[in-house]
UniProtKB/TrEMBL annotation:
Signal peptide: 1-20
The DUF2147 domain, residue ranges: 25-139
Record bears the keyword Signal: yes
Name recorded for this polypeptide: Uncharacterized conserved protein, DUF2147 family
InterPro entries cross-referenced by the UniProt entry: DUF2147
Organism: Paenimyroides ummariense
Keyword set includes Signal: yes
Entries under PANTHER family matching the protein: BLL5882 PROTEIN (PTHR36919:SF3), BLR1215 PROTEIN (PTHR36919)
Keywords assigned by UniProt, alphabetized: Signal
């Protein structure tokens, strides 16, 4: 009986540890200007690629549309918009895809890197990573 309980506890701990070491899940974005929470983005994996979709807006702009977004995203509601597209794992980082800033409609190259188990460094850049900026998102528990 002790072995069964020990196995269960170890399995549960391993499952929680694995979840904490992945970028998938829900993340709270923080507004650069106000320092206040702005939205919740759910990051998921599909066919080996990473995608992030706005699932909740935490400001008074809950019905905002992405009027400045390019292409098929133009005029779509920000809630439900996929803003992170096509990243692949590259060592400890995810890169090779894009991120869209719904406020400006601009699309940037993107890199994601875990900063501990509950913080995610999200870097948007043009050309090379040195020419960009990083936001830190916080995991939603």
């Amino acid at each position: 009986m002790k072995n069964v309980i020990a196995t269960f506890v170890l399995t549960a701990f391993a499952a929680l540890s694995m979840h904490a070491q992945t970028v998938t899940g829900k993340w709270k974005t923080i507004d650069d200007e106000t320092g206040k929470p702005k939205s919740i983005v759910e990051i998921s994996e599909k066919n080996g690629k990473i995608y992030g979709k706005v699932v909740e807006i935490l400001t008074d702009k809950k019905d905002a549309k992405c009027d400045k977004c390019p292409g098929a995203d133009k005029g779509k509601p920000i809630k439900g918009l996929t803003i992170i597209k096509g990243l692949s794992k590259d060592g400890k980082e995810y890169s090779g895809g894009t991120i869209t800033d719904p406020s400006s409609g601009k699309e940037y190259k993107c890199a994601l890197k875990l900063n501990g188990s509950d913080k995610l460094d999200v870097r948007g850049y043009v050309g090379i990573q040195a020419l960009g900026r990083t936001q830190t998102w916080v995991r939603v528990k």
